[in-house]
Amino acid sequence: MPILHPAFTILLIILILFSFHEVYGNEDKKTSLGIWIVAIIMIVLSGLRGNVGADYPIYRSFYLTYFPTIEYSELIDKMLMRKSDLEIEWMYVMLNKFVLSFGGPFQSFTFVSACITLGLKLWTFRKDSPYPIFSALLLFIPGYFIADSGHMRQALGMSMCILSYQFIKERKLFWYLLCLYVAYGFHKSAIIFLPAYWLVLIPLNANRIFYAIITCVILSPFQIYKLFSGFLGSLNLQDVSNGYNGYIGYEDKASSFMDGTMILNSFLLIVYDKMVCKRVWYYEYLRNILVFGVCLYFIFRENPVFSTRLVGVYIGFAALVIPNIISGIDKPNVKRFWHLFFVCFMIFYYFVFASYQGLAGRFTPDTYKNFLWSY
Predict the structure, then answer these.
(1) Does the record carry Hydrolase as a key word (predicted)?
(2) Is 2 exposed, middle or buried (0-12, 13-18, 19+ CB in 10 A)?
């Protein structure tokens, strides 16, 4: 039976054990020790990887040969939306050039990237999730491997979008737009998150959520996203290599594994909406973001790239929404049932991922390398 490298297997076990401590322990006393341990392990395994991840070779080549040839004046033109021949996002190039200026090898950049992407996510989990390590467990497969340890540009952009939730919650429009601008500088697809500041204010309830999702499911076969093909094409979702497309191709076709995940998310959002709204502060904001992500997923379902890459930032909020739903359930046995359900789901997903994307991304025992012990 295919498995991931023992380091990832041990990390999964640590996440599961800590999550049981969170859910079965005192929710009012969240400690930082567990999340710090998890953060360090996740950053080391992602940041110091060697030739691991679908886009690793092409990004290493860019870092060493292409980005040094780009002048800062070109980046400034791109930053100020002036006419420029530079096709890759300016903020990503700027970060590469900053790290390269210290003379470090490519793993220096992957380490910095991992510190930013995982640091921002886990900090947000610590702040806005009742069970931060449970949130990290939900992030682990597949987001940690595909984004944080794979397609770094989008991971950086998505992490800035997740950070911007703080300013959505505090209704600070300027800082929210600044986060989105930086996110867009890392990856153009971040622009899809722009409406989130206003979407969170839409009054929803279980019935409205149900009808919205059902409507999008019905519209799915009609591929209405083609009406915006010009705008969507400008987001350059195909990126710099075909690695990612092969990476996700196993589970993003009709009747895919992802469909089941979206249906499960929809069920939780609808069934427990009223209860959780009464018990969890700002849950409505998180809920609206995820509802919009589920709706977008079904709208883009016929396009495997759009339905994963484009809506990934919205779907990523499931790692915050699900723990808040479980925390807001007033019956301890039901709360523990759902926690155990998702633990079992992540164990199952571990083997699914190891059998397909784990091999393609070089995360298996015979392919994964880390500079702490492999070089």
Answers:
(1) no
(2) middle
pLDDT of residue 30: 67
DSSP result, 177-246? HHHHHHHHHH-GGGGGGTTHHHHTTS---HHHHHHHHHHHHHHGGG-GGGGGHHHHHTT-TTTT-SHHHH
**Per-residue burial over 291-318, b = 16 or more CB atoms within 10 Å of its CB, e = otherwise:** bbbbbbbbbbbbbbbbbbbbbbbbbbbb
Q: Which two tokens stand for residue 311?
A: 């809506």
Claim: this prediction has a pTM higher than 0.90:
yes
| CA–CA distance, 12 with 3 (Å, rounded to integer) | 12
Cα→Cα distances 221→142, 224, 298, Å: 26, 8, 9
Contact (CB, 8 A) for 249 and 304: yes
C-alpha to C-alpha distances, 340 to 69, 135, 297, 304, 345, nearest whole angstrom: 52, 14, 26, 30, 8
Distances (CA, A) of 177 to 9, 193, 247, 288, 372: 38, 10, 32, 19, 39
Q: What is the pLDDT of residues 98-116, one digit of tens each?
A: 999 999 899 999 999 999 9
The contacts of residue 174 (CB under 8 Å, 6+ apart) are none
- For the chain, the residue count is 375
CA separation for the pair 35, 20 (Å, rounded): 14
118 with 39: CB under 8 angstroms?
Answer: yes
Closest CA to 53 of 143, 156, 187: 143
Q: What is the DSSP code string of 243-309?
A: HHHHHHTTT-STT-HHHHHHHHHHHHHHHTHHHHHHHSTTHHHHHHHHHHHHHHHHHTTTSTTIIII
Give tens-digit pLDDT for 212-266.
999 999 998 887 877 766 666 666 555 555 444 444 554 444 346 788 899 999 9
49 has which bridge partners?
Answer: 370
